[in-house]
Design brief:
By secondary structure, the chain is of the alpha/beta class. 36% of the residues lie in helices and 22% in strands.
């Protein structure tokens, strides 16, 4: 096995379990202790993991990219996911939308849904609904301190959320990993997101395939707390198997399927499929 192949195996195990042991890798890869340690050195130099005594662990992300920077990533995947998520939101319901670029797109696909009451800590989400105001919709924006992802967090946000009863929460996340669950690099945002989860009857997580294997410093909730995870069909088969065992339902949005984006004329096509795993 080539070094690049070994290192990909190591990374896959890190993504799944959060840690690897040198002794286990020596046995499973049938190579020497020194070879494994060289692979770990190379991966650490790339920023892919952090070496610890006897092995390595996933590197916890503490940096938080800005909203504009994240908006330019995986655009087609996010639109496919947003269409699929919007199809899960019933008319005349009370729905929460957390911060995030994908949740802001979900808002765009919900502007014509009648009778919604929306609670959000996201400035972009609130702006989407403000620009498409309708008399049968109520939008409540929490207070709080603004994060790089344009979410409001902290004591004021928590006070706004506590005591609410929402039918459904659409949650955007920074990373997904089997051991760490759904994560974010912002400690205060994790606290606010947990409050939104606790206020909601059902949890829908909206996250594209690139979030798999990324670990933010703070866990929002474990995987098994998620009722529906909507991601895209670029998610690799190993990740599908892991997530299918933990989340209530895994929905794969088809990126290549034709679909109307907000502002486009004509009816929407919200093609999606359940993952059989």
């Amino acid at each position: 096995m080539l070094a690049a192949q070994r290192q990909e195996v190591i990374l896959d195990r890190i993504r799944r379990t959060g840690a690897v042991r040198v002794a286990d890798l020596v046995e499973s890869l049938a190579v020497s202790d020194m070879t494994v340690r060289r692979d770990l050195d190379a991966l650490e130099a790339r920023g892919a993991l952090r070496k610890v005594h006897g092995g390595a662990v996933a590197r916890a992300r503490t940096e938080e990219p800005g909203f504009a920077a994240k908006s330019a990533l995986q655009e087609d995947e996010k639109h496919a996911i947003a269409r699929a998520v919007a199809a899960l939101v019933p008319p005349h319901g009370a729905v929460g939308l957390s911060g995030g670029t994908t949740t802001a797109l979900v808002a765009g696909y919900l502007v014509d849904t009648p009778g919604l009451t929306v609670v959000t800590n996201s400035l972009p989400v609130a702006e989407v609904f403000h620009r498409a105001a309708r008399p049968d919709r109520t939008v409540a924006l929490t207070g709080g301190f603004r994060t790089p992802s344009d979410a409001l967090v902290g004591p004021l946000a928590l006070a706004s959320i506590r005591g609410l009863n929402l039918d459904l929460l659409v949650l955007g996340v920074h990373g997904i990993q089997e051991r760490a669950g759904f994560t974010t690099p912002n400690l205060l945002e994790a606290e606010t997101d947990r409050a939104l989860v606790e206020a909601s009857g059902s949890l829908v997580v909206a996250a594209d395939h690139s979030k798999w294997g990324t670990v933010g410093i703070s866990t929002i909730v474990p995987l098994d707390r998620c009722d529906v995870l909507v991601t895209d069909d670029g998610l690799d088969p190993a990740a599908r198997a892991v997530l299918g065992e933990h989340v209530g339902r895994l929905v794969l949005a088809e990126v290549g399927a034709a679909g109307r984006r907000p502002g486009d004329p004509g009816p929407e096509n919200t093609e999606q499929r359940e993952d059989p795993a």
